[in-house]
Amino acid sequence: xxxxxxxxxxxxxxxxxxxxxxxxxxxxxxxxxxxxxxxxxxxxxxxxxxxxxxxxxxxxxxxxxxxxxxxxxxxxxxxxxxxxxxxxxxxxxxxxxxxxxxxxxxxxxxxxxxxxxxxxxxxxxxxxxxxxxxxxxxxxxxxxxxxxxxxxxxxxxxxxxxxxxxxxxxxxxxxxxxxxxxxxxxxxxxxxxxxxxxxxxxxxxxxxxxxxxxxxxxxxxxxxxxxxxxxxxxxxxxxxxxxxxxxxxxxxxxxxxxxxxxxxxxxxxxxxxxxxxxxxxxxxxxxxxxxxxxxxxxxxxxxxxxxxxxxxxxxxxxxxxxxxxxxxxxxxxxxxxxxxx
Length: 341
What we know:
Elements: H1 2-33, E1 35-42, H2 50-66, E2 69-73, H3 94-106, H4 114-126, E3 129-137, E4 146-153, E5 159-164, E6 186-189, E7 192-196, H5 205-213, E8 218-220, H6 228-241, E9 244-247, E10 251-253, E11 273-282, E12 288-294, E13 298-305, H7 307-313
């Protein structure tokens, strides 16, 4: 009888104990995975040179991964440069603007193309998620218009989505077309649920709300805005959304623009920096946890814990218990070609 009881204990309780231990280990492992390292790559492109800019991006992807980051975010229009001449050259100077637009288009990205293949390869080989800003050609139609876009690549090296800036700001409208609601999405990654808004579309409350309702955890906000007001907005948005914000701005010197571009002479003669960057990473409580990085190239890193999002939303959840759907109705048009009758 004692032998039978002993066998019962061995064959019943030990597997249960082992199963419980495995469950505990799994739970513990999952909790540990909530803390990850993210990166903001405040770099200058090789101006209007797609090949060399992609090479620089791939090197930065490898560097960020070796430093332990699971997500790296590049600036707005990183491939192959922000067209800052729009703020300098009047639209009446057609010949000069045409020449620059041709050069910009030649060094823009079609999704997919050889440039995206190289970026995907770098992401996959280094097991890191990548979000990178680019001038994107409308390859699905004429291939002659440009969008200000973000490309999302997961750690397996696969393109998981892209976002086109909903509306360019001011003079930018002379370069880029307007995006639509079909690219206003979030993506599940090994770093968390990621989505992006570009520069001043971050100031659009309804665009933000669309991402909040999709359960976004990390908002990537590539930008050209280096101002103190921008940093304040990033802190507010992180607190409003109860999420992490990675704001990445291009650090661009005068020397980064080749002298062959005549618009360079339109800057003040003593100017050193065209854009000083001021990239930062912000926590769900609205506090800056890395940066701002000013007047230098570099990669910012921050350890983030996704549980901080849950803590932040206990008191205020913009798309949850604070949303009041009985008062407000919100809808995103994901099919802009479908007209309402």
